[in-house]
């Protein structure tokens, strides 16, 4: 069995620590816990780290295609490593949840999230694990684009960090138990 964890985000310094990069940030923390470092793979347009957990191969993937084209990186990787979509977990920001709230699902539609929309279009199924980390709705008159591409303000920084920590703990539970439902039951809010 092989598992693939994909964190969604946008590459480049200007997007580091923005709300839309919650998937990248969660995978960075998970890689740090496992003592892994990412290597850029130009063929697959991704940064990739790999390890074994309980004898199972696990790939951590950060697509470098920019959010709206995430599926262009994910689909070829699934095919190359012969990974069933049900062994794919995608970690991403969720504007429909309060900052830091964690929601895990075994399948789902895009909910308007362009990164998920791209993956759905490229792999042709919604039957993959979703880990959504809440980033809240835009405050005041801020546009959705400006909201997701901005960093957390002082009020939201702590809950966002806690959400990332919960996402990492949920992924470790999933990998240790080989049971996404166990992670769902333990971490869904």
TrEMBL record:
One annotated GO molecular function: peptidyl-tRNA hydrolase activity
Keywords: Cytoplasm, Hydrolase, RNA-binding, tRNA-binding
Annotated site residue numbers, Discriminates between blocked and unblocked aminoacyl-tRNA: 10
Binding site for tRNA: 15, 66, 68, 114
EC number(s) from the headed UniProt entry: 3.1.1.29
PROSITE patterns: PEPT_TRNA_HYDROL_1 (PS01195)
Signal peptide interval: none
Regions that span the bilayer: none
Source domain of life: Bacteria
Subcellular location: Cytoplasm
BP term (GO), one: rescue of stalled ribosome
Active site: 20 (proton acceptor)
GO cellular component, one term: cytoplasm
InterPro entries: Pept_tRNA_hydro, Pept_tRNA_hydro_CS, Pept_tRNA_hydro_sf
Catalytic activity: an N-acyl-L-alpha-aminoacyl-tRNA + H2O = an N-acyl-L-amino acid + a tRNA + H(+)
Swiss-Prot/TrEMBL site (Stabilizes the basic form of H active site to accept a proton) positions: 93
Family the entry assigns: Belongs to the PTH family.
SUBUNIT field: Monomer.
Function: Catalyzes the release of premature peptidyl moieties from peptidyl-tRNA molecules trapped in stalled 50S ribosomal subunits, and thus maintains levels of free tRNAs and 50S ribosomes. Hydrolyzes ribosome-free peptidyl-tRNAs (with 1 or more amino acids incorporated), which drop off the ribosome during protein synthesis, or as a result of ribosome stalling.
Identification of the protein by name: Peptidyl-tRNA hydrolase
């Amino acid at each position: 069995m092989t598992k693939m964890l994909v964190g969604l985000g946008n590459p480049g310094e200007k997007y580091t620590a923005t709300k839309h990069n919650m998937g990248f940030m969660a995978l960075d923390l998970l890689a740090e816990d496992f003592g892994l470092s990412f290597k850029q793979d130009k063929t697959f347009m991704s940064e990739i780290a790999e390890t074994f957990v309980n004898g199972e191969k696990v790939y951590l993937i950060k697509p470098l295609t920019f959010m709206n084209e995430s599926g262009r990186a994910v689909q070829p990787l699934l095919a190359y490593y012969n990974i069933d979509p049900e062994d794919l977990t995608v970690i991403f920001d969720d504007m429909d949840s309060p900052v830091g709230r964690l929601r895990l699902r075994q399948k789902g539609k895009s909910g308007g999230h362009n990164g998920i929309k791209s993956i759905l279009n490229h792999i042709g199924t919604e039957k993959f694990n979703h880990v959504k980390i809440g980033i809240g709705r835009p405050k005041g008159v801020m546009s959705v684009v400006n909201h997701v591409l901005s960093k957390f303000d002082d009020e939201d920084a702590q809950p966002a960090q806690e959400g990332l920590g919960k996402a990492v703990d949920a992924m470790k539970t999933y990998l240790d138990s080989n049971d996404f439902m166990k992670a769902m039951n333990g971490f869904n809010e």
